[in-house]
Amino acid sequence: MKNSSPSLWKATLAIVWKDLTAELRSRELLTSMLVFALLVILIFNFALELDARARANITAGVLWVTFTFAGTLGLNRSMAVEKDRGCLDGLLLAPVDRAAIYLGKALSNWVFLLIVAGIVLPVYSLLYNTNLFQPGLILVILLASEGYIAVGTLLASMAVQARTRDILLPILLFPVVIPVLVAAVKASSGFLEGLGWVDVSTWVNLLIVYDVIFTAVSFMVFDFVVEE
Amino acid sequence: MGQKPKALTILDWITGILFITAILGVFFYAPLEAVMGWVQKVFYFHVAAGWTGMLGFLVSAVAGVLYLVKKDPRWDRIGFAGVEIGMVFMLICIITGSIWARPIWNTWWTWDPRLTTATIMELIYAAYLLLRQGVEEPDRRARFGAVYAIIGFISVPLTFLSIRIFRTIHPVVIGSNDPGAAGAFDMTPRMMQVFMFSLVAFSFIFADILWHRIRLGALADHVEQKKIQLQTWGE
User: A11, A152, A171, B179: which has the fewest Cβ within 10 Å?
Assistant: First the structure.
């Protein structure tokens, strides 16, 4: 029986492929995440008077608030699509390890968030005449978004099954990802101010610890969230 | 089902007596702190309430794991009870802390790691209650509650750590004492005795309320089942 079902890795990739293809055709999720992210930056521009001096200190904060909000939008949508059209039941019926469903959804959510980040960074650099393309910042974005998505995918798959789903995800997710946000903001602003590795490494280590713990735990408990 | 167990009544009485003794101890046995005066009395119940709150959250996380393994609704009731009690005592801890901080730190609130972590914990468990409210089916509600109780509890130490790397002014009365902390003091033996006694008294209060809350949960489930039975009869 084991032989007839595809390997975990193959099944995961199939789900990622499905999500990416669906997104390529509809472009619903990425468009709304992107427009939303740009709107958040626009609102910050007026709310905080992002003049040159203020910007130096709060760029990291603005970026992470933007990613966090856009991320919730994407997570909610990516799970709601599965739930509404009965795709989730189809996936659960498929003869694959349920872990593959979690990994697949998490990976595609991660890709979407990284694409959004990849567009927001140059736009922000252009609008505010700075250069955000620094290897340190990109490393922080990779690490922090991984932890955020690992928990977010798990919580989103719970939230879509609840009555109050759209408002539930941020309420569930934000208090749990605070360590990621604190570490990400601190590390990003450290790299942007040009501090050395010694000053930033604590935060990067914290991000790695968070990623490892929460990816492992979410991976283990996902089965209980989708089981019927 | 129905009759209140005798052991619970006995526990009620012991808890009541311990609590009254603790109050008397705080006001009449423990000496007045030289610098801070009367407001320092808050400390005994402040720490004890924080301890009880953490105990409640720990119980909910452990009960969450056990529920996922055993699928016994009893563990769900215990986990839910742990969260409710934990939230109440954590709130008591935050409020008593503010009462103390006003004269000592000259502010009701600072963004210190402990204060911030306590607040975030309240928000995590408020989210837990909202999650449960949003799910009607009992089995699914229990599973989601268990998963979230585990995730939430694991995130607490990391939250604390992440905020700790900022400077703290909260005194550490037990264990190492950082001289930079504002409002720190050394406990005299009598203070230590009253403090330990308060911890024990609050642990009893926790056990007593937990038992009551679990019993209430069991009775509520019982009523729910009876209602469903009545409905099926009616049809």
Answer: B179
